[in-house]
Amino acid sequence: xxxxxxxxxxxxxxxxxxxxxxxxxxxxxxxxxxxxxxxxxxxxxxxxxxxxxxxxxxxxxxxxxxxxxxxxxxxxxxxxxxxxxxxxxxxxxxxxxxxxxxxxxxxxxxxxxxxxxxxxxxxxxxxxxxxxxxxxxxxxxxxxxxxxxxxxxxxxxxxxxxxxxxxxxxxxxxx
Length: 175
Known about the structure:
single chain; mainly beta; SH3 type barrels; seven-stranded antiparallel sheet; 1 helix; elongated
């Protein structure tokens, strides 16, 4: 697949604040990166506020905690202040990410693409991508909800970046 040259997206969501840890303002972090610890290689983070504004936030410390991650933000030293971050998206500026080679893309570039099968039926739009181990899966929502394997060539035939759509070999009967 080819990445859109005119991609105007300014931020890439890398994770979410998923909960509180302790009483000193530490937060549980759910990372979308591979490996999960890679989320900490990008700073500063941008945290989406309830108003929709993205606020810069410095991570002053982090560690693996059990099967998850926890982090401490600058100037957040209290559980009640930390609570205000729970459920918020964590993003970085697209410029902070490594440049992509020809044919590569980030998952976020697929989000919102219209999905059309070879019979020209519109199946819906990509709303989520799941990592399953064997292959990644597109979650496409339209009148129905489809789970479509992200297999370039055999299932995903073409991505037309400028038109904002993906052509797939997928029967509308497969839900």
